[in-house]
Amino acid sequence: MSYQSIDYEVQDHIATIALNRPETLNALTNGMMAEIVDALKQVERNRDVRTLVLTGRGRGFCSGQDLKALGEKPAERDIAEHLDRYYHPLIKRLANLEKPTIAMVNGVAAGAGMSLALACDLRIAVVGVRFSQTFVRIGLVPDSGSSYFLPRLIGPARALEMAMTGMMVDDETALQWGLINRLVTDEQLQKETYDLARTLASGPPLALGMIKREMAYGASHGLDQVLEREKDFQVRAAQTADHQTAVEAFFAKKSPVFRGQ
Ligand code: T3D
Protein backbone atom coordinates (compact mmCIF):
# COMPACT_ATOMS: atom_id res chain seq x y z
CA MET A 1 0.00 0.00 0.00
CA SER A 2 1.41 3.41 -0.91
CA TYR A 3 0.55 6.04 1.66
CA GLN A 4 -0.86 9.54 1.08
CA SER A 5 -1.04 10.89 4.65
CA ILE A 6 1.82 9.18 6.45
CA ASP A 7 5.43 8.26 5.80
CA TYR A 8 6.57 4.78 6.76
CA GLU A 9 10.14 3.54 6.81
CA VAL A 10 12.25 0.87 8.46
CA GLN A 11 15.91 1.30 9.25
CA ASP A 12 18.19 -0.59 11.65
CA HIS A 13 15.27 -2.61 13.08
CA ILE A 14 13.35 0.60 13.85
CA ALA A 15 10.11 1.45 12.06
CA THR A 16 9.04 5.09 11.88
CA ILE A 17 5.50 6.23 11.17
CA ALA A 18 5.36 9.99 10.53
CA LEU A 19 1.96 11.66 10.23
CA ASN A 20 2.21 13.86 7.19
CA ARG A 21 -0.52 16.51 6.95
CA PRO A 22 1.54 19.37 8.42
CA GLU A 23 -0.81 22.11 7.15
CA THR A 24 -3.42 20.85 9.65
CA LEU A 25 -0.90 19.97 12.38
CA ASN A 26 -1.45 16.36 11.25
CA ALA A 27 -5.18 16.21 11.90
CA LEU A 28 -6.62 12.71 11.67
CA THR A 29 -8.74 11.77 8.67
CA ASN A 30 -10.29 8.36 8.08
CA GLY A 31 -7.74 7.79 5.33
CA MET A 32 -4.84 8.65 7.61
CA MET A 33 -6.09 6.36 10.36
CA ALA A 34 -6.51 3.47 7.88
CA GLU A 35 -2.96 4.07 6.72
CA ILE A 36 -1.57 4.07 10.26
CA VAL A 37 -3.39 0.79 10.96
CA ASP A 38 -1.95 -0.70 7.77
CA ALA A 39 1.55 0.41 8.75
CA LEU A 40 1.07 -1.03 12.25
CA LYS A 41 0.17 -4.37 10.66
CA GLN A 42 3.48 -4.23 8.80
CA VAL A 43 5.29 -3.48 12.06
CA GLU A 44 3.59 -6.48 13.69
CA ARG A 45 4.37 -8.85 10.83
CA ASN A 46 7.95 -7.82 10.12
CA ARG A 47 10.26 -9.76 12.45
CA ASP A 48 13.06 -7.42 11.43
CA VAL A 49 11.25 -4.52 13.15
CA ARG A 50 11.89 -4.39 16.87
CA THR A 51 10.82 -0.87 17.85
CA LEU A 52 8.37 1.73 16.55
CA VAL A 53 8.74 5.51 16.56
CA LEU A 54 5.57 7.55 15.94
CA THR A 55 5.97 11.22 15.08
CA GLY A 56 4.55 14.09 13.04
CA ARG A 57 5.88 16.19 10.18
CA GLY A 58 6.03 19.97 10.57
CA ARG A 59 5.43 21.88 13.80
CA GLY A 60 2.69 19.64 15.22
CA PHE A 61 2.53 16.05 16.44
CA CYS A 62 -1.21 15.59 15.88
CA SER A 63 -4.21 17.91 16.34
CA GLY A 64 -6.79 15.12 16.69
CA GLN A 65 -9.84 14.60 14.52
CA ASP A 66 -9.78 16.70 11.34
CA LEU A 67 -12.60 19.09 12.12
CA LYS A 68 -13.05 20.10 8.48
CA ALA A 69 -13.73 16.47 7.58
CA LEU A 70 -16.76 16.46 9.88
CA GLY A 71 -18.75 18.44 7.33
CA GLU A 72 -21.35 21.14 7.93
CA LYS A 73 -23.53 19.27 10.40
CA PRO A 74 -21.12 17.51 12.74
CA ALA A 75 -23.82 16.74 15.32
CA GLU A 76 -25.57 14.51 12.78
CA ARG A 77 -22.68 12.16 12.09
CA ASP A 78 -22.69 8.58 13.38
CA ILE A 79 -19.90 9.10 15.89
CA ALA A 80 -20.21 5.62 17.43
CA GLU A 81 -19.63 4.05 14.03
CA HIS A 82 -16.75 6.46 13.44
CA LEU A 83 -15.06 5.54 16.70
CA ASP A 84 -15.66 1.80 16.24
CA ARG A 85 -14.44 1.77 12.68
CA TYR A 86 -11.42 4.06 12.79
CA TYR A 87 -10.27 5.16 16.24
CA HIS A 88 -10.66 2.00 18.28
CA PRO A 89 -8.81 -0.35 15.90
CA LEU A 90 -5.99 2.20 15.72
CA ILE A 91 -5.62 2.76 19.45
CA LYS A 92 -5.94 -0.95 20.30
CA ARG A 93 -3.42 -2.00 17.69
CA LEU A 94 -0.93 0.65 18.83
CA ALA A 95 -1.34 -0.01 22.56
CA ASN A 96 -1.30 -3.80 22.15
CA LEU A 97 1.66 -3.97 19.79
CA GLU A 98 4.11 -6.44 21.33
CA LYS A 99 7.08 -4.26 20.46
CA PRO A 100 8.24 -1.09 22.25
CA THR A 101 6.76 2.15 20.94
CA ILE A 102 8.06 5.70 21.34
CA ALA A 103 6.09 8.84 20.55
CA MET A 104 8.58 11.42 19.32
CA VAL A 105 6.39 14.40 20.17
CA ASN A 106 7.68 17.11 17.88
CA GLY A 107 4.95 19.66 18.68
CA VAL A 108 1.41 20.18 19.88
CA ALA A 109 -0.67 17.07 20.65
CA ALA A 110 -4.39 17.71 21.03
CA GLY A 111 -7.59 15.69 21.36
CA ALA A 112 -7.21 12.24 19.86
CA GLY A 113 -3.72 13.35 18.80
CA MET A 114 -2.81 13.40 22.47
CA SER A 115 -4.48 9.98 22.87
CA LEU A 116 -2.15 8.66 20.17
CA ALA A 117 0.89 9.86 22.12
CA LEU A 118 -0.55 8.36 25.31
CA ALA A 119 -1.09 4.98 23.63
CA CYS A 120 2.67 4.73 23.01
CA ASP A 121 4.89 3.22 25.71
CA LEU A 122 7.27 6.17 26.02
CA ARG A 123 7.18 9.83 25.04
CA ILE A 124 10.14 12.02 24.17
CA ALA A 125 9.03 15.59 23.59
CA VAL A 126 10.59 18.74 22.23
CA VAL A 127 10.98 21.97 24.18
CA GLY A 128 7.89 24.08 23.48
CA VAL A 129 5.58 21.07 23.21
CA ARG A 130 1.95 21.50 24.32
CA PHE A 131 -0.62 18.91 25.28
CA SER A 132 -4.36 19.47 25.46
CA GLN A 133 -7.49 17.41 25.93
CA THR A 134 -9.25 19.79 23.56
CA PHE A 135 -12.38 17.63 23.36
CA VAL A 136 -14.25 19.75 25.93
CA ARG A 137 -13.53 22.92 23.98
CA ILE A 138 -15.77 21.61 21.21
CA GLY A 139 -18.36 20.12 23.57
CA LEU A 140 -17.02 16.56 23.43
CA VAL A 141 -15.58 14.18 25.98
CA PRO A 142 -12.18 12.45 25.92
CA ASP A 143 -12.06 9.46 23.59
CA SER A 144 -9.53 7.24 21.84
CA GLY A 145 -8.30 5.93 25.19
CA SER A 146 -7.45 9.27 26.83
CA SER A 147 -9.65 8.53 29.85
CA TYR A 148 -7.89 5.16 30.20
CA PHE A 149 -4.29 6.25 29.75
CA LEU A 150 -4.29 9.73 31.27
CA PRO A 151 -5.37 9.05 34.90
CA ARG A 152 -2.99 6.08 35.01
CA LEU A 153 -0.14 8.26 33.83
CA ILE A 154 -0.62 11.51 35.73
CA GLY A 155 -3.26 10.65 38.36
CA PRO A 156 -7.01 11.35 38.41
CA ALA A 157 -6.88 14.94 39.68
CA ARG A 158 -4.59 16.20 36.93
CA ALA A 159 -6.35 14.10 34.31
CA LEU A 160 -9.70 15.55 35.33
CA GLU A 161 -8.37 19.09 35.27
CA MET A 162 -7.03 18.58 31.75
CA ALA A 163 -10.23 16.91 30.54
CA MET A 164 -12.64 19.37 32.16
CA THR A 165 -10.84 22.58 31.21
CA GLY A 166 -9.10 21.67 27.95
CA MET A 167 -6.10 23.52 29.42
CA MET A 168 -2.82 23.60 27.55
CA VAL A 169 -0.11 21.77 29.46
CA ASP A 170 3.29 23.20 28.66
CA ASP A 171 6.58 21.35 28.29
CA GLU A 172 7.96 21.71 31.83
CA THR A 173 4.60 20.81 33.38
CA ALA A 174 4.33 17.77 31.12
CA LEU A 175 7.72 16.59 32.35
CA GLN A 176 6.93 17.32 35.98
CA TRP A 177 3.58 15.49 35.75
CA GLY A 178 5.14 12.42 34.11
CA LEU A 179 3.21 12.92 30.89
CA ILE A 180 6.50 12.62 29.03
CA ASN A 181 9.66 10.65 29.78
CA ARG A 182 12.11 13.23 28.48
CA LEU A 183 12.11 16.85 27.33
CA VAL A 184 14.82 17.70 24.82
CA THR A 185 15.77 20.51 22.46
CA ASP A 186 14.80 20.48 18.81
CA GLU A 187 18.41 19.63 17.93
CA GLN A 188 18.46 16.69 20.36
CA LEU A 189 15.04 15.27 19.51
CA GLN A 190 16.01 12.84 16.75
CA LYS A 191 19.22 11.69 18.43
CA GLU A 192 17.66 11.11 21.87
CA THR A 193 14.69 9.29 20.34
CA TYR A 194 16.67 7.04 18.04
CA ASP A 195 19.34 6.32 20.67
CA LEU A 196 16.56 5.05 22.92
CA ALA A 197 14.91 3.22 20.00
CA ARG A 198 18.23 1.47 19.26
CA THR A 199 18.58 0.46 22.91
CA LEU A 200 15.10 -1.06 22.82
CA ALA A 201 15.70 -2.66 19.42
CA SER A 202 18.74 -4.45 20.79
CA GLY A 203 16.84 -5.80 23.82
CA PRO A 204 15.22 -9.25 24.09
CA PRO A 205 12.11 -8.93 21.87
CA LEU A 206 10.05 -11.67 23.52
CA ALA A 207 10.71 -10.34 27.02
CA LEU A 208 9.99 -6.76 25.93
CA GLY A 209 6.63 -7.81 24.50
CA MET A 210 5.76 -9.55 27.76
CA ILE A 211 6.95 -6.58 29.86
CA LYS A 212 4.42 -4.38 28.04
CA ARG A 213 1.58 -6.79 28.70
CA GLU A 214 2.69 -7.34 32.30
CA MET A 215 2.71 -3.63 33.12
CA ALA A 216 -0.69 -3.04 31.49
CA TYR A 217 -2.12 -5.97 33.44
CA GLY A 218 -0.47 -4.77 36.65
CA ALA A 219 -2.13 -1.37 36.37
CA SER A 220 -5.63 -2.80 36.66
CA HIS A 221 -5.42 -6.04 38.69
CA GLY A 222 -4.84 -7.01 42.30
CA LEU A 223 -1.55 -8.28 43.73
CA ASP A 224 -2.50 -11.98 43.72
CA GLN A 225 -3.48 -11.89 40.04
CA VAL A 226 -0.40 -9.85 39.14
CA LEU A 227 1.94 -12.30 40.88
CA GLU A 228 0.36 -15.17 38.92
CA ARG A 229 0.68 -13.27 35.64
CA GLU A 230 4.32 -12.41 36.39
CA LYS A 231 4.97 -16.09 37.09
CA ASP A 232 3.41 -17.15 33.76
CA PHE A 233 5.48 -14.64 31.83
CA GLN A 234 8.66 -15.43 33.76
CA VAL A 235 8.27 -19.13 32.95
CA ARG A 236 7.99 -18.23 29.26
CA ALA A 237 10.91 -15.77 29.40
CA ALA A 238 13.11 -18.26 31.22
CA GLN A 239 12.54 -20.81 28.45
CA THR A 240 13.83 -18.53 25.69
CA ALA A 241 17.18 -18.97 23.99
CA ASP A 242 17.72 -15.24 24.61
CA HIS A 243 17.70 -15.84 28.36
CA GLN A 244 20.15 -18.71 28.02
CA THR A 245 22.59 -16.77 25.82
CA ALA A 246 22.34 -13.64 28.01
CA VAL A 247 23.32 -15.59 31.13
CA GLU A 248 26.23 -17.14 29.21
CA ALA A 249 27.24 -13.69 27.94
CA PHE A 250 27.17 -12.36 31.50
CA PHE A 251 29.74 -14.92 32.68
CA ALA A 252 31.81 -14.45 29.51
CA LYS A 253 31.76 -10.69 30.25
CA LYS A 254 30.28 -9.97 26.80
CA SER A 255 27.21 -8.07 25.63
CA PRO A 256 24.38 -10.44 24.74
CA VAL A 257 22.99 -10.50 21.21
CA PHE A 258 19.24 -11.07 21.43
CA ARG A 259 17.56 -12.87 18.53
CA GLY A 260 13.96 -13.03 19.65
CA GLN A 261 14.10 -16.80 20.20
O1 T3D B 1 -16.03 11.63 14.97
C1 T3D B 1 -15.34 12.16 15.88
O2 T3D B 1 -15.24 13.36 16.00
C2 T3D B 1 -14.64 11.32 16.87
C3 T3D B 1 -13.30 11.71 17.26
C4 T3D B 1 -12.95 12.82 17.95
C5 T3D B 1 -11.56 12.95 18.41
C6 T3D B 1 -10.96 14.33 18.53
O3 T3D B 1 -9.78 14.44 18.36
S1 T3D B 1 -11.94 15.66 18.93
C7 T3D B 1 -10.75 16.98 19.05
C8 T3D B 1 -10.38 17.58 17.69
N1 T3D B 1 -9.25 18.48 17.75
C9 T3D B 1 -9.34 19.71 18.21
O4 T3D B 1 -10.36 20.17 18.65
C10 T3D B 1 -8.09 20.57 18.14
C11 T3D B 1 -8.29 21.71 17.16
N2 T3D B 1 -7.05 22.47 17.02
C12 T3D B 1 -6.66 23.35 17.96
O5 T3D B 1 -7.26 23.53 18.99
C13 T3D B 1 -5.41 24.12 17.65
O6 T3D B 1 -5.18 24.07 16.27
C14 T3D B 1 -4.16 23.56 18.38
C15 T3D B 1 -4.30 23.83 19.88
C16 T3D B 1 -3.96 22.07 18.15
C17 T3D B 1 -2.90 24.29 17.87
O7 T3D B 1 -3.10 25.69 17.91
P1 T3D B 1 -2.15 26.66 17.08
O8 T3D B 1 -2.55 28.04 17.44
O9 T3D B 1 -0.73 26.26 17.30
O10 T3D B 1 -2.44 26.36 15.54
P2 T3D B 1 -3.71 26.80 14.66
O11 T3D B 1 -3.45 28.11 14.05
O12 T3D B 1 -4.95 26.66 15.45
O13 T3D B 1 -3.73 25.65 13.55
C18 T3D B 1 -2.85 25.68 12.44
C19 T3D B 1 -3.63 25.20 11.22
O14 T3D B 1 -4.04 23.85 11.44
C20 T3D B 1 -4.90 26.00 11.02
O15 T3D B 1 -5.16 26.07 9.62
P3 T3D B 1 -4.98 27.47 8.81
O16 T3D B 1 -5.80 28.49 9.51
O17 T3D B 1 -3.49 27.75 8.91
O18 T3D B 1 -5.43 27.14 7.43
C21 T3D B 1 -5.96 25.13 11.66
O19 T3D B 1 -7.26 25.32 11.13
C22 T3D B 1 -5.45 23.75 11.30
N3 T3D B 1 -5.94 22.77 12.27
C23 T3D B 1 -5.54 22.61 13.55
N4 T3D B 1 -6.20 21.63 14.13
C24 T3D B 1 -7.04 21.13 13.20
C25 T3D B 1 -6.87 21.84 12.01
N5 T3D B 1 -7.56 21.57 10.90
C26 T3D B 1 -8.48 20.57 10.97
N6 T3D B 1 -8.68 19.83 12.10
C27 T3D B 1 -7.98 20.07 13.21
N7 T3D B 1 -8.17 19.30 14.31
Automatic annotation (TrEMBL):
Superkingdom to which the source organism belongs: Bacteria
A GO molecular-function descriptor: catalytic activity
PROSITE patterns the UniProt entry points to: ENOYL_COA_HYDRATASE
UniProt cross-references to Pfam families, sorted A to Z: ECH_1
Membership in a protein family: Belongs to the enoyl-CoA hydratase/isomerase family.
PANTHER family: EG:BACN32G11.4 PROTEIN (PTHR43459:SF1), ENOYL-COA HYDRATASE (PTHR43459)
Designated name of the protein: Enoyl-CoA hydratase
Taxonomic source organism: Sulfobacillus acidophilus
Lineage, top ranks: Bacteria, Bacillati, Bacillota, Clostridia, Eubacteriales
